[in-house]
Amino acid sequence: xxxQRLERSTKPFNARGSKVSRCQYCQVAQQDCLCEHQPSPSxxxxxxxxxxxxxxxxxxxxxxxxxxxxxxxxxxxxSRTEPEQxxxxxxxxxxxxxIVVFPDQYVEDKTxxxxxxxxxxxxxxxxxxxxxxxxWREARRMFNKSPYLNALPVLSINPDxxxxxxxxxxxxxxxxATAEVASLVFQQLGHDRLHQTLAMWFDVFxxxxxxxxxxxxxxxxxxxxxxxxxxxxxxxx
Length: 237
Ligand SMILES: [Zn+2]
Fold this sequence. Notes:
Blueprint: H1 2-8, E1 42-51, H2 63-69, E2 70-77, H3 85-91, E3 96-101, E4 126-133, H4 136-144, E5 154-155, H5 159-168, H6 178-188, H7 192-212, H8 223-233
Parallel strand pairs: 1-2, 1-4, 3-4, 3-5
Helix pairs in contact: 2-6, 6-7, 7-8
Zinc ion is lined by residues 23, 25-26, 33-35.
């Protein structure tokens, strides 16, 4: 999708951080490339990532980390008026139960909300979790202006879970990244291992991403990568 979008682009892409020479796949600096450490993907849930136009180009985008952890993972560029047929087919695929992930207080029709204690076992079909990948403003627009999402059930992350998570977090960032939202949703639905894998993979990415920033002082001990690799060796991921 990144390549496709690049080809469509009429102006050269010069976002912040574009001076760093990055691995085309994992988007961190070449010397920190994480591709060889890719997690083994889970088949417990399916994921559909709807990506806003701007988000595709951001090296800091974390949506792609979700795609690394789930076998049946699909990403589409969001369009209000011209949704891709493949995406619509996926929403109608009888193997899946499509579920939109969005905060409940912004959902007008409360009958769409899934009980906060529901797990994947409560669904007859494999959950297809639809994640809206973009800024909060873009995500709201995607949620409100996509007729093909209007009738689907909505899952909201438990606020207690979010605040617990925020307390453990090391930085002061107030918003959750898309990968963090997904990892909390996996936990809520009863997929502890997948939750753990994505949460640690996100830490690994963030660590390498910060190391790639020229302004930051490098930490070559890479504690997050070490923790991730040792969890994987112990087969707990
Ligand atoms: Zn790479």
